[in-house]
Pirin family protein (Maribrevibacterium harenarium), 342 residues
Amino acid sequence: MSKVIKQRLSLGMFWPTFDPFLFCAFHNDSYPAGNEKLGPQASLAGRSIGQDFAGIGGWRMYHGDVVPGFPSHPHRGFETVTIVNKGYVDHADSMGAAGRYGVGDTQWMTAGSGVQHSEMFPLLRQNEPNPLELFQIWLNLPARNKMVEPHFAMLWNEQTPNVAFTDGEGNHISVKVVAGSLSDQQGNQVAPLAPPPNSWASQSDSEVAIWLIDLPANATWTIPEAVVGLNRTLYFFEGDAITIAGEQANVSEAYVVDSSLPLELVGGDKPARLLMLQGRPIGEPVAQHGPFVMNTRQELQQAFFDFQRTQFGGWPWPDNDQTHGVEIRRFAKHADGTVETP
């Protein structure tokens, strides 16, 4: 194995991650046309409604019973970074915030001391399929920030940097920079949109990077080296065989690599898409149970007690699977009433 590549792992729906990341799910669903309730125009017979992860027909209802997705549920002690490449997500939360985002947008939510939210996948088109593709990444918080006030930020697709590179054969490589700056081909540093203020990614020495790499067929691009001691993982989720650091790499594999060395990618016969997660480890104990991530078992027990007692502010919406109408539009309404659009 190349000295750059430390480990290679197989990928399913849930991907292996390393400190400071806790979890990464890849949702790739070929939803059919929608109905008037924003659910699928298809029979739900044979599905385990409320717990449908089987992928029958190429799509899942997850915990939804009318609209696919994840009805209201709590979190504490970490952040969710949800990158939607295709389709839409309807967000609602216990802060009173709401929104619809998709087609390239990212929502970055700091759960902090506790929040409930719902994440539904409205099937807005009634005359054509509604494909959905998204990553949900869980980024840990250090102990000092686990109980901060909840917060969410929208990183709209139109404002998220895409850094373009051209190789010696004229192939155009694109890198979407959700987090972590990247120098362009002329050596100019391209900074991402700001993460929430209490995020581990907002710390200047955390070296957190979240990049989406589009590598055309037969193209060559080298991921620049970073500093020593980071956890850097490359997820190859679409395409055919490519070469990573001189080794043949297969789709649906992850590659844990040395962050201090450059990493050459050479495309295969088809375009390839990869996700890179990188960060300096927080290096603290992790106590996790379901939707809560703390440092000790006692803190976990307190999280469950607090949720049972306060419901993290309660649920101010009429439905646990709240959606936002049939109009195809993107928006975010924050807890203070401020509304933003792309």
User: Anything to note?
Assistant: DSSP finds one helix and 27 strands in the chain. The CA atoms of residues 225 and 327 lie 44 Å apart.
